[in-house]
Amino acid sequence: MKKIGVLFGKERSFPHALIERINSKNIPGIVAEPVRIDKVMQGEATEYAVIFDRISQDVPFYRAYLKNAALCGTAVINNPFWWSADEKFFNNCLATKIDVPVPKTVILPSRELPTDTSDESFSNLAYPLDWDGIFKYIGFPAYMKPFAGGGWKSVYQLNSMDEFFEKHAETEQLVMMLQEEIKFEEYYRCYCIGGKYVRIMPYEPRNPHHLRYVSDFKPSAERYKLMEDIVLRICRYLGYDFNTVELAVRDGVPYAIDFCNPAPDADVNSVGQENFNWVVETAATFAIEKAQSHVADADNLTWGEYIKRSSARQKLY
């Protein structure tokens, strides 16, 4: 019997629907259930062939548990090693190398010194930074947001240098990105599952949260295909099994705005019933595929093209 475990926190609608849908398919030798952890012993395998992770980004104990599980052969969705290493600024940097349009973006040191550091810890950092060069490159209006993500927390829309310095003073030890504002005509949020299943959803981030999926954007067949190709390219390079990519269309060009979302919102009350049904069905299909292809005591993780190509280059030396 191969078990598919779902690891989640206070979220309810998606995890329970996913478990129910997997079990309702009655695939011989496959069963799904909530993950249960009563102890974690180093180097010892879990009882799960597959674990669908929805919470370890907020619980370091779970992330450590998942790395040990993956080391012992569990297929973890998403790869906990890559997820631990990734962040939004790197995503943007990678996009510039794989022909994905992204807003002009810079990373900024934290406004306050990190704990256990002093001025002497930053002897390699120019003071002041080249603010004139940074602002000329980005322009205003602009957005400032944490480089490591966190949904819509600590996100600022800025219209001037004075406003930037005022708001940056509020960010304490957060490392922030300053990003060009893309004034878009259309906006889409796109699920990508298994590096092959894509759902492109019209999305309006300027609406209240509960109305953001209420939008009448209708892409042409050509634009739909272009957006699908961008979503697949991003997720295959990053190696995420389950991710969302946000695309803002300006002058006909889809810009990838936010694409480091390995535990994306999938609650029925926010994404709507039709989108919810798709993500539950597709996630169930993919989890079953991972269980069926699982090989005991092997590396069953998904590794992105960036890592695989880097590894291949190393083998040449």
Textual characterization of the structure:
With 317 residues, this protein is of the alpha/beta class. Among the domains are: 2-85 and 285-306, Rossmann fold; 104-180, Dna Ligase, domain 1 (2-Layer Sandwich), CATH 3.30.1490. Helices cover 35% and strands 21% of the residues. It has 10 helices and 12 strands. It has helices spanning 13-24, 60-71, 80-85, 88-97, 131-138, 161-168, 221-238, 268-271, 273-293, 305-315, and strands spanning 2-7, 30-34, 48-53, 75-77, 105-108, 142-146, 156-158, 176-180, 186-193, 197-202, 242-250, 253-258. The strands form 3 sheets. The chain has a 4-stranded parallel sheet with strand order 2-1-3-4, with helices on both faces. It has a 4-stranded antiparallel sheet with strand order 5-8-6-7, with helices on both faces. A hairpin with a 2-residue loop joins strand 11 and strand 12. Helix 1 packs across helix 9 (273-293). The termini are far apart. The model has no long low-confidence stretch (mean pLDDT 96).
